[in-house]
Amino acid sequence: MTRHQMREAAFMLTFERIFTTDSVEEIVDTAKECDSFEINDQAIALFRGVDEHREELDGIIAKHLKNWSIGRISKVSLAVLRIAVYEMKYCDDISDEIAISEAVKIAQTYTLKDDVTFVNGVLASVSRA
Question: What does pTM read for this prediction?
Fold first, then answer.
């Protein structure tokens, strides 16, 4: 599994978490039973890290929104932003540029064009802070 595929799997788990009260373990177990995408220990670790720091990540994201609130962000974009901000803050082996680039790639696959621009802009602002 490539790093991009790992991030994409973590994105799927993070996105799922937005819509359920299931525990992280339940979401991971369900994902492992699903044949539609691959999951590995790195993806699970990234998902767990994002989930454990969700409130802090949302606070960081909120500080970099202009005339927006967390509640107005599409759920897909929010999941992408959470993963990228987590990597920027907690993964010393990943540069901000790579975290942003990977987030933009995932956003290009799963969101609308305006959302891609939005994600890129928010992450660029976080990176400059």
Answer: 0.95
